[in-house]
Each structure stands twice: as structure tokens, then as C-alpha cells.
Amino acid sequence: MRYLKIGTFGLILVLIVFVAASVPSNDEEIVPEVEEASNMKQQIDLEKKGKMKPKLDQFIQNEPLLHGALIGVSVRSASDGKILYERMGDTRLRPASNMKLLTAASALSILGEDHTFSTEVLTDGTVKGSKLAGNLYLKGKGDPTLLLSDFDTFAAKLREKGIETIEGDIIGDDTWYDDVRLSPDLIWSDEHYYYGAQISALTASPNQDYDAGTVIVEVSPGSKIGEKPDFTVTPATDYIEVINQAKTVTADVEEDITITRQHGTNEIIIEGTIPIASPNIREWMAVWEPTGYALDLFKQSLKKKGIAWTGELRTGQASDDAEVLVAHQSMRLAELLTPFMKLSNNTHAEVLLKEMGKVVYGEGSWEKGLEVMKKELTKLGVNTDTLLIRDGSGISHIDLIPPNEISKLLYNVQNQSWFSTYLNALPVAGSDDRMVGGTLRNRLGDIKGKVQAKTGTIYGVSTLSGYIKTNSGEKVIFSIMLNNLLDEEVGPEIEDKIVNIIAQIEKSK
């Protein structure tokens, strides 16, 4: 056996090392506490996942309507943004109208809650007595909320200025935006309905849902069997022509009325049969070239106020030095967000997109609007490198967004000054008030008032993303995206079941 020989100095050194190793440092006392708190937080997250994951997985795997479909789900804590559950969370899926969540956030950030759209009545002539010698321009700057009553007000204000005759043309100016009317991927069968309406800087809406660029066609049974049904158009306008080819039939025959518009025209055709005892049928129909529609309503208003003109009605552009006779401001963006998001208004989304392009780059186009939106979304923490965005409304079947990016946006916007406006614009589940419940007013009644979320539907696609207050009172963010469905109408029922499972998350103690 060998013995290690050490000197006095070596012995002292060994003792020092031994003592130093035996005395705990301040760092050693703190680290276990930090690790313990971190471990507890992780354990809470794991417990939440553990309670939710098997239930969601089991439901998704056993739901026959999802067989062959794609389902992406992302659930986050609203307090720290951590993912509590995900399924295909980073897979790009078609968002349908969940795209509006991105458009609304970008618009609030770029344009601001107080942004308004203006409409102007201008002239390049002079007023002498009761005559305006020169052209009169109606210049639109994107307002999607103009009603017939607003055109009446414009005419009334001209009359107050003493104008009775216009010795010139009445000209509609829509040059605030470009002249591309339809979003890039709109399918032909959608273009004559309200959700595919054309986008113009000068447009009009039939009522306070503000479906700009549309008229309401209402069909009612005739007074006798065999007669053509009656119909009305709101607002009344000569800009469209209704061709009534339908017939009133006996009460025992099923209603089968179709209302369409011929492509490239303003000929609206009513076809089919309507039982004599049937309730009225209403359809919102998009017009061809909304600029002319707004101009026709303005013409009517001028006539009602006794104002005549010697020239013609046409489109054109007012000169920069034209004098403003009447100016009108729309409601604030903060208010417009209610019909936009609650009722899922596609036209508003595309108008906002073009307006962002106009404000930032001086060009009101889809191309420039999308450029602005992508940059703003990046600032809001969204990874735009993994997105494919073609419009502002989500009507495109080419739009692609991962569920995790939607839930991430919903988490990040909570810190924005405009978040309360954004949140309040989302439909509230189970609320009967149409401008509160919106597209969720007839859904999730068993957890009424606990869900604020955006719905979305296009062919084969159903989506729902937003915020939910769980049974324990915690706030959770979710995004559910169902793609490749054989029937998108089954989507809401599936989404509601998933939301109810998420609502059952219990707060860990």
C-alpha cells in the first residue's frame, strides 16, 4: 500500500477547500426557490394540458365528420401566452373570415380608432345666384356607410346654398382607390351576392348593416296562384333592372326562388316558385360598378330637392383646386368595427385594406394594402413568413394561416391601447342582440357571454378564434380551424363542442 505524503501547506489547502465547499452561498440558497417556483408553474401548465389534451384528442379522433378533414387547434393562456394545447398548430390552413382578426388589428394600429372616411361634393365652377356654372363632383374616399339619407343631406345642403340649377355635368369621382373591383381569388358564383360586392371608393349601402355596393331585393307571393310574385328593391334605384320570371303557386308546393345577377350587368333575375302563403324572401345583391349606383342615388336626391342640371351623369376626377361645397365624415373606425366584425362584413375588410395602402403609400390597392398589413402584423409579433395572405376578408381559398399565429396575435394585441375596442367588436356567444352577439348570437348558449370570438365560413372551411373565460374564471385564447370538410355547415357544431371542452379547464391549486 502506498501513502500520499503531503506537507503542511498542502494540508492547509485541503482544509480550506473542504470548508469552502461546506458553506452554502447566497446563490445556492436562492436557486432552489426559483427552480421550485418554475417547476410549480410548469406543473400547473402540465396539469391543464393533462386535463384538456386527452378529452380534445379523443373527441377529434372519434368525430366521424372530421374523418378525412384537417383540423388545427391552438389554445394559449391569456396571461402568459404559453400554449396549453395544439394540434397542427404550425400547419397553414385556410382561415375564412378569421382573416378579419388580422385585418382589424392592422387597421386599428395603422389608421387608429378615430379614423373616418370622408365624402365631398365639389365644383370647378362658380355660384351666381341660384346657378352653379360648372360641373358638380361627388368624390368618395372609401366610406362604406353612405345611405340614401346621406345623399339627401348632400342635396339639402346644396339647396341651402341657394343652388337650383347646375350648368354642367354631375360627376362621380372614385379615384381615391384604384379601379380593381374584385379581390384576386373571388370565385364567379360569389360575385353577385353581398359578400362578394365590388370595392369602390364611392359606394352606397342599403341599410345600417352597411353592406356597401348592394341592394336588397324582397320577393313576396302574388295575390293569386299563377301570378308573378311582387318584389321591392331597397333603396329604390333605376341603376338596376329586375327581370321577374317567377310564379306564385299553391301553398302545398315547396318554395324554390332564386335571385341572381347577370355577370357584367345590373340585370337581376328572379326565378322559380313561391307558395301563396309563403313569407317574404330577401336577398342582398351586389351591383355592378358601385360608383354608378352611388351617383344614381345622388341624382335622385338632387331631384327631390328641386335641383336641376343641364349636363349628363358620368364618372371622372375632380381637379386638385376644385372647391369643396359639402363635406361629410363617416363614423369613427372604432364604431365601424361593430358591424364589420359582429356581422363579418367582407366589404369593410377590403375597404380597410385599400385604405391602409392609401394612407401609408398613397395607393388604395390590394397590393399596397397587403404590404402594409404584413409589416404591421410583424410588429404585432406574427411570423408573416409562414402566412399567405391574398385579401382582407378571408373569402380567398388561397389565404393560409397557422392556428398558432392567430392565437399568438390574439395574445399580443392584449397590450395595445385599442384592445378594448378590438375585443368589444368580437361576437359574444349567446347574446340575442344582433349587434352584440353577431354571428355567435345563436351559438354556445350553455356558456353564454363567456366566449368572444370571430367566426369564419367558406366552402369546405369553418373556423372560430377568440377568447373564452373558463369555468374557473381564467381567460384562455383559442383558434380552431377546420379545413377540407365535406360540408362546412357542420363546422360550428364541432367547434362549439371543442370550445365547451376548453371551458372545462379547472384552475390548479
Quick tags:
509 residues, alpha/beta, five-stranded mixed beta sheet, 12 helices, globular, disordered N terminus
- Percentage of residues in strands: 15-25%
What's the alpha carbon Rg, rounded to whole Å? Answer: 30 Å
The average pLDDT score comes to 91
Provide a count of the helices: 12
Helix amount? 25-40%
> How many E-type strands?
21
Low-confidence stretches: 1-35, 37-48
Main sheet: which strands, in order across? Answer: 2-1-21-20-19
How would you portray this structure in words?
With about 500 residues, this protein is an alpha/beta fold. It is about 30% helix and about 25% strand. It contains twelve helices and 21 strands. The strands form five sheets. It has a five-stranded antiparallel β-sheet, with helices on both faces. A five-stranded mixed β-sheet has the order 17-8-6-3-18, covered by helices on one side. A hairpin with a 5-residue loop joins strand 13 and strand 14 (about 265-275). The chain is globular. It starts with 7 loop residues before the first helix and ends in a 6-residue tail after the last helix. The model is unreliable at about 1-35 and about 35-50 (pLDDT under 50).
